[in-house]
Specification:
Helix 1 (2-14) packs across helix 2 (47-63) and helix 4 packs antiparallel against helix 5. This protein has helices spanning 2-14, 47-63, 65-73, 77-86, 89-105, and strands at 20-22, 30-32. The two termini are 28 Å apart. It has 2 domains: 2-63, no CATH class; 66-105. The protein has a two-stranded antiparallel ribbon with strand order 1-2. The chain is elongated and about 65 Å long. It is mostly helical and 113 residues long. It is built from 5 helices and 2 strands, in the order H-E-E-H-H-H-H.
Length: 113
């Protein structure tokens, strides 16, 4: 049901303030609460708006996969701080080298900012 989570995030992003209940994983599974226009003039999003936003979210999510992979493998930053406190340049360099190895293992895709 990852799509459902994406759909929730997308609707909250593109139409904050709308009231709805989701009962599945598609636009047709959204029950929009009345009224159709909420505070500040926010209107219910169209299927096209939601579909476009879901597609954009999917691209953003995929473009950040390298960040999630890196985060799992980066060494504990406490090792670097410990090296600083002790003045141990070898320990600090070992931490930096380990981080660079993770970055090399999971490079940032071209065109991703």
């Amino acid at each position: 049901m990852e799509y459902q989570v994406d759909l929730v995030r997308v609707i909250e992003k593109i139409k904050p303030g709308t009231k709805w209940i989701i009962r599945g994983n598609s636009y047709d599974d959204i029950e929009w609460c009345e009224p159709p226009v909420w505070e500040g003039g926010v209107k219910k999003p169209t299927r096209e708006e939601v579909d476009a936003a879901v597609a954009e979210y999917a691209v953003e999510h995929q473009n950040k996969e390298y960040q999630r992979l890196r985060a799992r493998e980066y060494p504990d930053f406490k090792e670097y701080l410990d090296g600083i406190v002790k003045g141990d340049t070898e320990q600090m360099q070992a931490y930096i080298d380990a981080c660079l190895a993770v970055k090399a293992k999971y490079p940032k895709p071209e065109g991703v900012e």
